[in-house]
C-alpha cells in the first residue's frame, strides 16, 4: 500500500521520507494495531530499561550512616526473600488416602527358637575385597561377609541389638556363634566355603510354666525372661530343643562342658516342639538367602544338625584349592620372529609355553610336612613363629575346556622345528593341605610357573623348603589372585586316616518337593547359568576375534622383524599377560627379606612393646586373644589359615 501526502498538509522532503519509512499495519476492519516488535527490538528495549533501573539504583552510599546502611540492607534482603517466595511453585495438595497406614510390627526375639546350622557357599571373588570383614578398614569394594551380614539381617535369621533389618550397620557376629573355614583374599573365589552360626528357627518353644525360684538360685541357662535379659541374639533359648550329631573329636571335648538337661519324651509341654521335622518344617534357609544375596554369591547346601563340637574354623582338617591356568600361558610369537629362537638361548621351552612335566615334578616336592616360610607373606601382627604345614596332595590336572579357535598355537609356525605338539589346554594346580599361611598357594604357584617356563629347575622347590640353609625368603612376585579357588573344606571324624567328610549336607533341591529351588525359575541353576552364559559369550567373542586376527594377513612364517629386537624376558604370573623383567635374575640370587624373628621383633617394638615375647602376652590380651590356653598343633595351624 502506498501513501500519498494529504493536500491539506504540506511537509518537507525529509519529513516525507521519515513518514514513508514508518511501518503501518492495516487490518480488514480499518483499525490500526501496534506492530509486533522483533526479538532484537524487544531485547534492546529490555536492556535499555534494565540499564535505566541500574542507573537509578546507583546511589552513593559513602555518605550514609551505619544505621541507614543497615536499614537499607534489611530492606533489600526482605525484597529478595519476597521475590524468591513468589517464584516457589506451589505444590498441589496431597490426595487423601483412605488406606490404613502400615505400621511396622515390633519384633520380639524371645518368641523364636534358634538352632546351630552350617552353610556351604560359593562365590566369585573378582568384585569383592576378600571374604573377611575388618572393622574400620574402609575399602571401595564390599566383602563377602558384609553381603552375608545384610542378607541374614534382612531375612531376620539373626537379630543383633540396635540394628534395623534393612540397615544392619557394621558387621558384628557377637551372639551368633559364628565361625568361618577360610579367609580368602581380595579377588579369590570359593566353591566350597563353609560357615556356621546360630539362626532363627520355626521349631516352637516349649510352653512350660515357670516354677517360682528363690532369688539366690542362679539360672543355669542365663536366659530367664523375667529379668532384664538381652534376647537380641541367637544363643540357645530356654526350653528350646535342637538336634546335633555326635562330636567329630570326642577326646578334645572339655570334661567341664555343660551337658544338656534331661528331657522326657512324653512331657506334654514339649509335645509340639518334638513333633517337628528339622528339615521339612523349618525355614527354607538356602532359597531364602539366595533371594537376598548378589548373584555372585550362592548358598549351595546346609547342614541341619552339625556335630555338637562343630566349628567351621577348628573342625576343618583339610582344605582344598585349585589354581587355574592355560597352556600356552600367554600369546606366543612365531618361531621366526622370536628373538629367543635364534640359537642363543638354552631354554627348553619356548616363551609362552609351559613344561607341564617339570611342573608336576616340582609340585610333588611340596607333599609332606615342611616349613613354608619361603612360600608365604609374613604377617608380623600375628607374631607367627611356626610355619610348618602338611600338604596331603599336589597334582596338575587338565580341565575339560577346549577352545577350537586356539588350534594355531600348536602349529609349527609358532612352536618351531623339533618341538612336540602342544595343543591349547586349560589346566589347574590342585593342592590339599591341613592349613595354609598367608599367600602360600599363590607363592607356590609362582615358583611352579618359573619352573614351567624353564627359568628355574624343579629343585628350586627343595632349596626354598630348606630353611636351615635358606632362612630368609627371596623377594619374588607371587601369582595373580583371580584364578585361585577355595575348592572344598573337609571335616572328618577324629582318627580317620582317609579324611572323609563326616558332615551331613542337604543340597539345594534335595528336599522333598523342593526341586524348583534348584531348577525352577530364579532357582540356583537359573542364576548360575546366567553368570556362566555372560562369561561364555564374552569368551566366544574374544576367542573368535583372536582367531580372526591371527588368520588375517600374511603367513607368520613369511613375516620379518627388526634386526635387534628386544630381549626382555617375559615372565608369566597367572594374570592375563606376561611381565617384562629385562634379564631374568634367578630366585636364589634375588634380594632376601629379614628373618622372621627380626620382622616380629621390629613390629613389636614399633607397637610400643619391649620385645616380641611381651607382645604375645600383653598385646594379645588387649585383643582378647587367649594365649595361656595350650591348643593342639592342628589348632595352632588352623589359627593361621588364610587362602592365598
UniProtKB/TrEMBL annotation:
<feature type="compositionally biased region" description="Low complexity">
    <location>
        <begin position="250"/>
        <end position="262"/>
    </location>
</feature>
<dbReference type="GO" id="GO:0005737">
    <property type="term" value="C:cytoplasm"/>
</dbReference>
<dbReference type="GO" id="GO:0031119">
    <property type="term" value="P:tRNA pseudouridine synthesis"/>
</dbReference>
<dbReference type="GO" id="GO:1990481">
    <property type="term" value="P:mRNA pseudouridine synthesis"/>
</dbReference>
<dbReference type="GO" id="GO:0005634">
    <property type="term" value="C:nucleus"/>
</dbReference>
<dbReference type="InterPro" id="IPR020097">
    <property type="entry name" value="PsdUridine_synth_TruA_a/b_dom"/>
</dbReference>
<feature type="region of interest" description="Disordered">
    <location>
        <begin position="206"/>
        <end position="225"/>
    </location>
</feature>
<keyword id="KW-0819">tRNA processing</keyword>
<dbReference type="GO" id="GO:0003723">
    <property type="term" value="F:RNA binding"/>
</dbReference>
<feature type="region of interest" description="Disordered">
    <location>
        <begin position="242"/>
        <end position="264"/>
    </location>
</feature>
<comment type="similarity">
    <text>Belongs to the tRNA pseudouridine synthase TruA family.</text>
</comment>
<feature type="region of interest" description="Disordered">
    <location>
        <begin position="552"/>
        <end position="578"/>
    </location>
</feature>
<dbReference type="GO" id="GO:0009982">
    <property type="term" value="F:pseudouridine synthase activity"/>
</dbReference>
<feature type="domain" description="Pseudouridine synthase I TruA alpha/beta">
    <location>
        <begin position="362"/>
        <end position="492"/>
    </location>
</feature>
<feature type="compositionally biased region" description="Polar residues">
    <location>
        <begin position="552"/>
        <end position="569"/>
    </location>
</feature>
<dbReference type="Pfam" id="PF01416">
    <property type="entry name" value="PseudoU_synth_1"/>
</dbReference>
<keyword id="KW-0413">Isomerase</keyword>
<dbReference type="InterPro" id="IPR020095">
    <property type="entry name" value="PsdUridine_synth_TruA_C"/>
</dbReference>
<dbReference type="InterPro" id="IPR001406">
    <property type="entry name" value="PsdUridine_synth_TruA"/>
</dbReference>
<dbReference type="InterPro" id="IPR020103">
    <property type="entry name" value="PsdUridine_synth_cat_dom_sf"/>
</dbReference>
<dbReference type="InterPro" id="IPR020094">
    <property type="entry name" value="TruA/RsuA/RluB/E/F_N"/>
</dbReference>
<protein>
    <submittedName>
        <fullName>Pseudouridine synthase</fullName>
    </submittedName>
</protein>
Amino acid at each position: 500500500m502506498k501513501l500519498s501526502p494529504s493536500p491539506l498538509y504540506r511537509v518537507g522532503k525529509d519529513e516525507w521520507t521519515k513518514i514513508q519509512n514508518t511501518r503501518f499495519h492495516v487490518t480488514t476492519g480499518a483499525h490500526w494495531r501496534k506492530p509486533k516488535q522483533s526479538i532484537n527490538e524487544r531485547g534492546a528495549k529490555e536492556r535499555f530499561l534494565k540499564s535505566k533501573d541500574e542507573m537509578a539504583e546507583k546511589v552513593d552510599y559513602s555518605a550514609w550512616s551505619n544505621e541507614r546502611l543497615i536499614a537499607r540492607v534489611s530492606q533489600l534482603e526482605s525484597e529478595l526473600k519476597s521475590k524468591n517466595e513468589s517464584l516457589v511453585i506451589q505444590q498441589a495438595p496431597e490426595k487423601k488416602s483412605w488406606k490404613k497406614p502400615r505400621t511396622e510390627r515390633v519384633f520380639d526375639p524371645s518368641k523364636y527358637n534358634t538352632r546351630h546350622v552350617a552353610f556351604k557357599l560359593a562365590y566369585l571373588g573378582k568384585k569383592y575385597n576378600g571374604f573377611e570383614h575388618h572393622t574400620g578398614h574402609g575399602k571401595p569394594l564390599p566383602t563377602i561377609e558384609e553381603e552375608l551380614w545384610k542378607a541374614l539381617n534382612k531375612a531376620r535369621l539373626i537379630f543383633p541389638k540396635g540394628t534395623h533389618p534393612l540397615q544392619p550397620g557394621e558387621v558384628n557376629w557377637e551372639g551368633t556363634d559364628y565361625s568361618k573355614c577360610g579367609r580368602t583374599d581380595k579377588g579369590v573365589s570359593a566353591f566350597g566355603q563353609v560357615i556356621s552360626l546360630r539362626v532363627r528357627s520355626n521349631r516352637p518353644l516349649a510352653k512350660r510354666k515357670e516354677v517360682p525360684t528363690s532369688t539366690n538360685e542362679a539360672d543355669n541357662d542365663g536366659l530367664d525372661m523375667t529379668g532384664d535379659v538381652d534376647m537380641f541374639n541367637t544363643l540357645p533359648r530356654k526350653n528350646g530343643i535342637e538336634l546335633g550329631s555326635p562330636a567329630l573329636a570326642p577326646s578334645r571335648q572339655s570334661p567341664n562342658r555343660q551337658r544338656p538337661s534331661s528331657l522326657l519324651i512324653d512331657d506334654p509341654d514339649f509335645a509340639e516342639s518334638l513333633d517337628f521335622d528339622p528339615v521339612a518344617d523349618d525355614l527354607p534357609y538356602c532359597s531364602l538367602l539366595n533371594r537376598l544375596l548378589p548373584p555372585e554369591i550362592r548358598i549351595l547346601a546346609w547342614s541341619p544338625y552339625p556335630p555338637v563340637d562343630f566349628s567351621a574354623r577348628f573342625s576343618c582338617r583339610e582344605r582344598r584349592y585349585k589354581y587355574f591356568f592355560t597352556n600356552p600361558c600367554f600369546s606366543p610369537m612365531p618361531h621366526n620372529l622370536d628373538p629367543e629362537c635364534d640359537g642363543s638361548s638354552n631354554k627348553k621351552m619356548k616363551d609362552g609355553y609351559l613344561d607341564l612335566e617339570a611342573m608336576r615334578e616340582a609340585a610333588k616336592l611340596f607333599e609332606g610336612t615342611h616349613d613354608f616360610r619361603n612360600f608365604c607373606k609374613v604377617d608380623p601382627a600375628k607374631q607367627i613363629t611356626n610355619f610348618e604345614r602338611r600338604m596331603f596332595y599336589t597334582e596338575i590336572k587338565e580341565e575339560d575346556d577346549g577352545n577350537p579357535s586356539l588350534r594355531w598355537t600348536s602349529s609349527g609356525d609358532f612352536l618351531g622345528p623339533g618341538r612336540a605338539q602342544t595343543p591349547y589346554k586349560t589346566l589347574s594346580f590342585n593342592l590339599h593341605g591341613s592349613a595354609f599361611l598367608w599367600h602360600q598357594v599363590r607363592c607356590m604357584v609362582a615358583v611352579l610357573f618359573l619352573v614351567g617356563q624353564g627359568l628355574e629347575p624343579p629343585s628350586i622347590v627343595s632349596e626354598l623348603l630348606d630353611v636351615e640353609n635358606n632362612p630368609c625368603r627371596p623377594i619374588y612376585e607371587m601369582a595373580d589372585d583371580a584364578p585361585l579357588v577355595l575348592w572344598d573344606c573337609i571335616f572328618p571324624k577324629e582318627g580317620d586316616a582317609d579324611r572323609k567328610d563326616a558332615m551331613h549336607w542337604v543340597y539345594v533341591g534335595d528336599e522333598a518337593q523342593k526341586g524348583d529351588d534348584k531348577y525352577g525359575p530364579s532357582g540356583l541353576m537359573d542364576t548360575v547359568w546366567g553368570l556362566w552364559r555372560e562369561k561364555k559369550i564374552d569368551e566366544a567373542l574374544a576367542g573368535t576375534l583372536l582367531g580372526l586376527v591371527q588368520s588375517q594377513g600374511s603367513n607368520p612364517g613369511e613375516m620379518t622383524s627388526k634386526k635387534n629386537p628386544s630381549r626382555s624376558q617375559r615372565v608369566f604370573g597367572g594374570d592375563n599377560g606376561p611381565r617384562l623383567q629385562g634379564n631374568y635374575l634367578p630366585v636364589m640370587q634375588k634380594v632376601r627379606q629379614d628373618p622372621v624373628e627380626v620382622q616380629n621383633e621390629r613390629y613389636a617394638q614399633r607397637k610400643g612393646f619391649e620385645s616380641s615375647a611381651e607382645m604375645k602376652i600383653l598385646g594379645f590380651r588387649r585383643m582378647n586373644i587367649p594365649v595361656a590356653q595350650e591348643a593342639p598343633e592342628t589348632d595352632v595351624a588352623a589359627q593361621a589359615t588364610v587362602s592365598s
